[in-house]
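Structure in, sequence out. Go:
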């Protein structure tokens, strides 16, 4: 069996060269170990990077791992690479993103049903920036496209998985729904503001504005994880 130090070195090399999230299951298969041992090695690496205040950090994004730069060195990286801060997301973009995050997978029609306005342009913008992606089609007349959030969304908001989304309260009316979404987005924005510099240093290129994404017209039967059209 491969030595622990060698396991960690191989994981580090794979993630460094990949430059993007790599599935934990793939890393475990390459190393010939089970996922539990691979995840334990990754956790040790993450703790060591943090304790030693290294220039890199290891992120766990759902079932994947990724290396990025440490947030405290973001300004040095930006100056060295002469990069600029990416444009901030608009209020409509934040609204659409919050709906997709909580009710995915969703169709454009479902997003528009909640917002009450056409959202084609905004969804296209989020697709272009990599915060949402298409994930198939709904088995309904016209077979509309379904959308979900991406690993870049998790990274931007400093989450390892969607399970870390603030839970919505029990929704019994449209007013409850609006208030619940607003409170959840406040919590999300607090997380995003903490992680913004880390994401910037990793050159993820996606920072959101610090506004509140309010959502109107949320029906009484809406809840996290619901599939709508």
């Amino acid at each position: 069996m491969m030595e622990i130090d060698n396991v960690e070195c191989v994981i580090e090399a794979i993630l460094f060269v990949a430059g993007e999230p790599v599935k934990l299951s793939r890393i475990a298969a390459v190393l010939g170990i089970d996922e539990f041992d691979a995840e334990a090695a990754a956790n040790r690496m993450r703790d060591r990077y943090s304790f030693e205040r290294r220039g890199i950090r290891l992120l766990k994004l759902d079932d994947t791992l990724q290396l990025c730069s440490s947030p405290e060195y973001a300004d040095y990286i930006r100056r060295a690479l002469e990069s600029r801060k990416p444009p901030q997301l608009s209020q409509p973009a934040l609204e659409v993103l919050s709906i997709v995050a909580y009710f995915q997978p969703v169709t454009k029609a479902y997003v528009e049903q909640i917002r009450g306005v056409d959202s084609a342009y905004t969804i296209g913008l989020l697709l272009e920036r990599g915060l949402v992606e298409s994930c198939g089609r709904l088995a309904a007349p016209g077979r509309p496209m379904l959308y979900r959030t991406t690993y870049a969304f998790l990274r931007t908001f400093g989450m390892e998985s969607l399970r870390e989304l603030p839970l919505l309260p029990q929704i019994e009316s449209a007013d409850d729904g609006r208030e619940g979404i607003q409170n959840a987005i406040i919590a999300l924005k607090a997380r995003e503001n903490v992680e913004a510099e880390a994401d910037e240093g990793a050159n993820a290129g996606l920072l959101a504005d610090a506004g509140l994404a309010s959502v109107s017209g949320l029906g009484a039967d809406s809840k996290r994880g619901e599939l709508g059209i």
